[in-house]
Design brief:
alpha/beta, D-Maltodextrin-Binding Protein, domain 2, 2 domains, 10 strands, globular
């Protein structure tokens, strides 16, 4: 979903150095008797989901005789890739990297969804999590220093209360709805085709604020071009330790992250899914991958299939309420 921030060069350099140095050990066997694993990604090359998938693929490649191929199938907010998984083989040779909302929020966002997450997607492992940030730009006075003060300014200036996100129904948009509804503040959502265009609009004064992954905000925060008023994690961000969380600012229920996970077709055997999950978890735990994800503003987060299924269930209950309360939908 999110085009890559300036940290992409560091991200790819670390990944390349790790592989060139032979950092991927042959410490685990192939997940299944599969010659080559295909990883489907529903977003373009160079996007954050693409980087999540490629680094994971590189670090699990030794488990497959012909390594691992990343196959970008962008379009329809990731749904084209899901369709390719459904139509693909059932032998475990095809894996999908998707945003968490594809399994947890899309059933409530889309009136016509081409798949049933519960019936068509089998969880394999969580991959990475991204903390979100609420930031303001030059359109908002410097005296506004937290989300309550932002809400007060928005009430006084409703015509200027435009909030940007990287798309309708994305976790930043859903957090935006939760936050400003809790603050009882008027706002107008402005959807952009990704994070960088939203940041550009913020810096140009075209919108008042954004809700975006913190990795897209921290460089501009350091340069003094925008102000991050809050982050959405349970604890303060290691990258923005000076910024109070929404929890610290009085909103204990607003702990939200964007996340990516791996899935297989529901037609794949349980044994193959478990074996692939073990291979993925070993890859996602490698120090060079953890560091590379961190360089891109992400936390590596391997999990069992059962833990991922529980995460989907928990998020789905929250997103259903938010989507219905705010009448958010995508035709």
């Amino acid at each position: 979903m999110h085009p890559v921030s300036a940290s992409r060069r560091t991200f790819m350099r670390r990944a390349g150095l790790a592989l060139a140095a032979g950092a991927a050990p042959r410490a685990f066997a192939a997940a299944a008797p599969i010659d080559q694993l295909h990883v489907l990604v529903g977003f373009p090359a160079g996007s954050i989901p693409d980087l999540v998938a490629r680094l994971a693929a590189d670090n699990m490649a030794e488990a497959y005789p012909r390594r691992v191929l990343v196959d970008n199938r962008p379009g329809a907010a990731g749904q084209i890739a899901v369709g390719a998984l459904k139509a693909g083989p059932a032998d475990g040779s095809m894996l999908l990297l998707a945003q968490g909302t594809a399994a947890s929020a899309y059933p409530y966002l889309y009136s016509k969804l081409g798949y049933d997450p519960a019936a068509d997607l089998k969880p394999v492992s969580l991959a990475a999590e991204v903390t979100l940030g609420v930031a303001v730009g030059p359109a908002v006075p410097a005296s506004v220093g937290n989300v309550r003060e932002l809400a007060e300014w928005m009430r006084r200036n409703p015509a200027l209360a435009n909030i940007g996100s990287p798309g309708v129904g994305t976790p930043p948009h859903l957090l935006e709805a939760m936050l400003f509804r809790s603050l009882d503040a008027p706002w107008q959502h402005i959807a952009y085709p990704g994070g960088p265009p939203a940041v550009a609009a913020l810096l140009g004064g075209q919108i008042a604020a954004v809700v975006l992954p913190e990795g897209l905000l921290r460089q501009q925060q350091a340069a003094g071009k925008l102000r991050v008023l809050a982050t959405s994690g349970a604890r303060r961000s290691a990258y923005l330790p000076e910024v109070a969380t929404l929890v610290e600012q009085g909103y204990p229920n607003l702990v939200v992250s964007d996340w990516f996970a791996f899935f297989m077709s529901s037609r794949v055997s349980r044994e193959t899914i478990e074996a692939t999950s073990q291979t993925l978890r070993a890859a996602l735990a490698r120090p060079q991958l953890v560091t590379a994800y961190a360089d891109a503003g992400m936390l590596a987060a391997p999990s069992t299939p059962a833990a991922l299924a529980e995460r989907i269930s928990t998020d789905a209950k929250v997103w259903e309420q938010v989507i219905r309360a705010n009448n958010i939908h995508v035709d």
